[in-house]
Structure formats: structure tokens, C-alpha cells
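--- STAGE predict ---
source: upstream dedup step, 1 unique chain passed
mode: sequence only
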Amino acid sequence: MKRPLTEAEAGTASKETFRPSPVVSLPEQIRQQLVDAVARGDLRPGDRLPAETALALQFGTSVAEVRAGLNSLVAMGLVEIVRGRNGGVKIAQPKPDLLEQTLHDGLSVLTDLSGVTLANLAEARREAETACARAAALRRTDDDLTAMSAALERSANRHLGLGDWLDLDIVFHRGVAQASHNPVLAMPLTAVHSVSQPRLNRLVADQLDRSEILNHHMAIYQAIADREPDAAARAVHVHVAYLEARYARLTGMPRPFAAEPGDAALA
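--- STAGE serialize ---
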């Protein structure tokens, strides 16, 4: 006869019962069922999970496999392990940086191993940044403008090394994403940009005209500052069309987009 679970083993916040599945690996089952419980609202930040021994009994597995599943959730930032007398495993407050890193890592693996092309990345970046720039023009704050302006001012320094200049490019585009104040838009753009730009920059960095790139960035910044979403979208299109033309010239990558004739004035 099985002994009854203690309160610590059963958990203090959730009545969720977890069950094994015969197909998926046990650590993955644990990870997925806990993610689903959070998505349904059965578990909230601060809620304690059942003890590892209780989860092992529910899943019919070992404590070691439970720990493997929980560790994957720690890496995602979904749970935190608190040590000490009143510790345990708790649902964590969302950490956008960790979620962004998870998205970046997954996209990076897809790019390196699963046939995602530079053209795919360039197209995704164009569409994501257009949406972010439009939203930023509607929602940007003075602090957002200050952050973007600081990156532009530093990037105008002609004595900057190439690496520092490229880093500031990422800072500026991250600023556009953050100014959208929509994490569902911003996180994919930041992940796509951080995966695509190092790869693409290796190909075209020495082909880029820094003053022209600065003009493109200034046009994006000014449209956002002026709260003009259509102008912000056009400025992004001009910038990305310029980059895609150089990618195509060096790699044979197709150009899925060309700037409209009226957009040229923005550069």
C-alpha cells in the first residue's frame, strides 16, 4: 500500500495531476505538461510544484528524469529552484531575455542544420522590422528615442572599428524592436536579427557604405520620432532593399523585395 503524499510532495498551489505518455520521452513529457499547465492558467508565477518525488510517482519514472525535465524549464526561465528549508520548485516570473535566448537558439539551430536560407532570414527580418517600426511610430517614448539616438550618434564616428560599428547596428535595430512595446513583435525580430546579421555581415560588411546606412537609420528614427508609421515602414523597406541587393550580388540570393520608386527619397 502506497503511503499518502505529504503536503510538500503534493505541492501547495496546483491540483494538476501529471500522467505519463508512452510515446514521448519522459523529460519531454514533464516539460510539455508543465508548460501546458501554465498556458491554461492552472499554474501561476509563485506557485509551488509538487516535490520531485511526487512528480516521479505521477509520471511513473525516476527522480533523475524529473530533474532533467525541470532543468529544461529552468533554462527556459519558466521555473526556478529555490534552495533551503522553505525552498522547492516554483513557477517563475516571465523573463523576456531568457525566452528571447531560447528563440534565438532554436532559430540558430534551424539555420545551421535544417536548410533555413539567408533569403528566408532576410525576408523574415524585413517583415518583422516593418511591423515593429510601424508599432514604434505609434507607441515610442522619449526614452526609446534617447536610446536609438545614442546608438546613431556613436555609429556616426568614422574612427569606429568594424566590429564596434556592427554592434551599434544591432543596438539600433533592437531599439526599434523595443520601441514597439509589443513583445510578441519584438522578440522574433530581435532573434531573427541576432541570428541573421552576424552571418550576413561576414559576407557584405566590407561592401557597406557607412554613411548610407546611417542615412537609412536616421530616416527610420525620424519617422518613428514623428509618429509616422507609413514613413517608418518605407524607411525600413529602403534599408532592407539596399542590404538585400548586396546579399544577392555576393551570394546569388534572390531579391524578394525591391524598394518602391517613391521610397528612394527617404535614403
